[in-house]
Design brief:
heterodimer; A: 456 residues; alpha/beta; OB fold (Dihydrolipoamide Acetyltransferase, E2P); 13 helices; 29% helix; B: 364 residues; Rossmann fold; two-stranded antiparallel ribbon; 8 strands; 44% helix; disordered N terminus
Chain lengths: 456, 364
């Protein structure tokens, strides 16, 4: 009986990949452990090994095929006659995580937002020029590369940023162009290298410190808060600390409680820090360039789930986006949805559905969490008189709480309904697919809250 | 098992690294000790010795005055005095090139600043929280900086300055400016994890840094032997192939000699060095410390037999400097300190508008 070999999920967020190369041909006898193929994911090129023994019956998907969905049958293996046919459908490497990920990919989980631009907001700057489609990770890489070409004080330091090409491929190609002096692999030692970066900034360099994820930055938060953020003030303006701490933040997909957290509110609570959390590629690029050029310490929060998402961006664009300015991503008159990072996409989805009901939602992307653009929030509130906040994070002491406070303090007279927070559930992130889905914000929840404040 | 193929071209790990328990490794790790044993004291000229003496006395008189002002309520919060440890800062920093090198320390920082020639008036005015203070009154005793003098603070989180100093050293190497960083920390900070993270990277990347452990015997109230499994702190870098050197921190000339050996080694591109300066603080950890964890006799014995200033004074007298000359020096330094205290007492507090300046450099 033939066993179906299916496209494996090789990372928590992988939904499709490229079948880069077959290393076996039809008729080959394979045994467990043989390498069957090379598969390119959004992060790396991985080897795909056989689990079952048998003869390769048919290669269903030709090598070089891109965008093969996880779970697609890519080959058939004819098993030994006398062996019990495997019930496992795929020779998934260390099968459990990828099996689980596949299950999740099959489930229509808004937890793992679809890897397509929900309603790609055109970068306004791009309107009149040639437009290219780039992924968020490419935009971030280009921002770093451009600034490194411009200023030789800029360097990148972190775990796996150089030879490995970045744990999430964000620093891909930088080592090749700038060499090991400026693209520096560290040991696994967040507290230490965050301190080294901060000290280098105090001494006049312009470090970009990459955390593999911001979850690991908790080991280093002392240097971000106590060393970087307070230096300028404590020295009476004498000693600066121009540094960028960047990396993915927020929930990824099925990685459990210790790897799924939005630290935006933590850092945004600290005077002396700039905190940026962009959504699309144009903003990510323009804001990262601004962050690198800033004289102040910046925490730059990316989102792993958007890294592979494509956006339109003007070609050869080297725009700088001012820090501290929100953007009206979609204009509307009936209700304001304030969002940042991944929830901007969800808010836009919700806005489309609301429009079908005759409710015109205005979507504001905060872009910078500190300093927060109070003016943009209040101006929109004055226009729509109803406001909700969409945040992928806990509700307690959140950015959403802060927006509510701003509306109460300075926008009270414009309010026709209470300001609502649409956030994750107030629990550590569960692992089980259904529980994770239940814990996370999605566009349906945003939609429901918007209807509620509109009494619809 | 799936694994990456697009991986590094780095050499495969050696399954059986050569062990070298008594060979070249040990020789390299002990090289500084051997050099120091061969000649343990710096051959200072009379002029140099007189200068060291003056700097040590300035620090002591300054710190005594700071203690006095604290008692009068003019200095608030935490105030950590350097009395007893003067030979360390003076001996080490006299060996630096102030144009090239950088210094960073923890919160017991007054002495290190004075040893670098920073104006006592600006320091004392910072202690009293005045606008004329070196941090415009916004830093306080623990947070003073002078970018002009390459003095990078002044850090209140125990051990943070070790990683930050390693970053300063990273900068020296990155810019290829020939500079060396001198990073001070205490026997207490030596037990912080980030110290060893920093040691590892500094040695791995051969960063130009001299790590200086000022072992004054007590991490606040905890005696070294109650808090440290390895009390010979100069050995703490061995696991990272950082050569160490124990030094009598109560003798300014021995300190200076150790500094020369260490700085020569580091400046030549050999990577970091770890110095253990064995010293003693006469006063409590901070002003509010009753110092019940040690006996009066212990403190008195250090003062009577090991005082770095008495030691230098005796040596000056032996070299033919007269008592009158020394009295004149002492009088002049007392005058400088009194002037600094008057300045710190009489100059105005920061303008209230300063409350919200310097939070960020730029406007957004």
């Amino acid at each position: 009986m033939a066993v179906e070999l299916k496209m494996p999920a090789l990372s928590p967020t992988m939904e499709e990949g490229k079948l880069a190369k077959w290393l076996v041909k039809e008729g080959d006898v394979v045994k467990s452990g043989d390498i069957l193929a090379e598969i390119e994911t959004d992060k790396a090129t991985m080897e795909f090994e056989a689990v079952d023994e048998g003869t390769i019956g048919k290669l269903v998907v030709a090598e070089g095929t891109e965008g093969v969905k996880v779970g697609t049958v890519i080959a058939l293996i004819d098993g030994e006659e006398d062996e019990k046919p495997s019930t496992s459908s795929a020779p998934a490497p260390e099968a459990k995580p990828s099996e689980a990920a596949k299950e999740e990919a099959k489930a229509a989980a808004p937890a793992a937002p679809v890897e397509k631009p929900a309603a790609p907001a055109k970068a306004p700057e791009a309107a009149a020029r040639n437009v290219a489609t780039v992924t968020l990770r490419e935009a971030l890489r280009d921002a770093m590369a451009e600034e490194m070409r411009r200023d030789d004080r800029v360097f990148v330091i972190g775990e796996e940023v150089a030879e490995y090409q970045g744990a999430y491929k964000v620093t891909q190609g930088l080592l090749e162009e700038f060499g090991p002096k400026r693209v520096i692999d560290t040991p696994i030692t967040e507290y230490g290298f965050a301190g080294i970066g901060t000290g280098a900034a105090m001494g006049g360099l312009r470090p970009i410190v990459e955390f593999m994820t911001f979850n690991f930055a908790m080991q280093a938060i002392d240097h971000i808060i106590n060393s970087a953020a307070k230096t300028n003030y404590m020295s009476g303006g004498q000693m600066r600390c121009p540094i960028v701490f960047r990396g993915p933040n927020g929930a990824a997909s099925r990685v459990g409680a210790q790897h799924s957290q939005n630290y935006g509110p933590w850092f945004a609570a600290v005077p002396g820090l700039i905190v940026i959390a962009p959504y699309d590629a144009a903003d990510a690029k323009g804001l990262l360039k601004a962050a690198i050029r800033s004289e102040d310490p910046v925490v730059f929060l990316e989102n792993e789930l958007i890294y592979g998402r494509s956006f339109e961006l003007a070609e050869d664009d080297d725009h700088i986006i001012p820090i501290g300015k929100a953007r009206v991503v979609r204009e509307g008159t009936d209700v304001t949805i304030v969002a940042y990072s991944i929830t901007v996409g969800m808010a836009l989805e919700a806005a489309e559905l609301l429009a079908a009901d005759g409710i015109e939602a205005e979507v504001i992307d905060l872009r910078t969490l500190r300093p927060l653009d109070r003016g943009a929030v209040l101006a929109s509130l004055a226009k729509t008189n109803r406001l909700i906040v969409a945040e992928e994070g806990w509700p307690t002491c959140s950015i959403a709480s802060e927006i509510v406070a701003i509306c109460m303090e300075d926008g009270f007279d414009h309010l026709d309904a209470p300001v609502l927070r649409v956030c994750n559930e107030d629990v550590p992130m569960p692992y089980a697919a259904n529980l994770e889905k239940a814990a996370l914000i999605n566009s349906a929840r945003i939609l429901a809250a918007a209807r509620k404040v509109c009494n619809r | 098992m799936a694994k990456t193929t697009a991986n590094s071209s780095a050499t495969a790990p050696d399954p059986a690294p050569a062990s070298d328990p008594g060979g070249e490794d040990l020789i390299q790790l002990r090289s500084l000790q051997l050099a120091h044993q061969a000649e343990s004291r710096y051959q200072a000229s009379d002029e140099e010795l007189r200068h060291f003496y003056e700097q040590m006395v300035l620090i002591r008189r300054f710190e005594e005055k700071a203690g006095q002002l604290y008692g009068l309520g003019l200095i608030g919060g935490f105030c950590h005095l350097y009395i007893g440890q003067e030979a360390v800062a003076v001996g080490l920093q006299s060996a630096l090139d102030p144009k090239l090198d950088s210094v960073i320390t923890g919160y017991r920082d007054h002495g290190h600043m004075l040893a670098y020639g920073i104006d006592p008036k600006l320091i004392m005015a910072e202690l009293t929280g005045r606008a004329a203070g070196i941090s415009r009154g916004k830093g306080g005793s623990m947070h003073m900086f002078s970018v002009e003098h390459h003095f990078y603070g002044g850090h209140g989180i125990v051990g943070a300055q070790v990683s930050l100093g390693t970053g300063l050293a990273f900068g020296h190497k990155y810019r290829e400016d020939g500079g060396v960083c001198l990073a001070y920390f205490g026997d207490g900070a030596s037990n912080q994890g980030q110290v060893y993270e920093s040691f590892n990277m500094a040695s791995l990347w051969k960063l130009p840094i001299v790590y200086v452990i000022e072992n004054n015997g007590y991490a606040m109230g905890t005696a070294v032997k109650r808090g440290s499994a390895e009390t010979h702190f100069y050995r703490r870098g061995t696991a990272f192939r950082i050569p160490g050197l124990p030094v009598n921190g109560m003798d300014v000339l021995e300190v200076r000699q150790a500094a020369n050996i260490a700085i020569d080694y580091v400046r030549a591109g050999n990577g970091p060095v770890l110095l253990e300066l064995n010293t003693y603080r006469y006063r409590g950890h901070s002003m509010s410390d009753p110092a019940k964890y040690r006996t009066r006799e212990e403190v008195q014995e250090m003062k009577d037999k090991h005082d770095p200033i008495d030691h230098a004074k005796a040596e000056l007298l032996l070299r033919g400097v007269s008592e009158d000359e020394i009295k004149a020096i002492d009088k002049r330094l007392r005058g400088i300190v009194t002037e600094a205290a008057d300045f710190a007492d009489s100059s105005p507090e920061p303008d209230l508008a300063e409350l919200s300046t310097d939070v960020l450099v730029e406007n957004y």
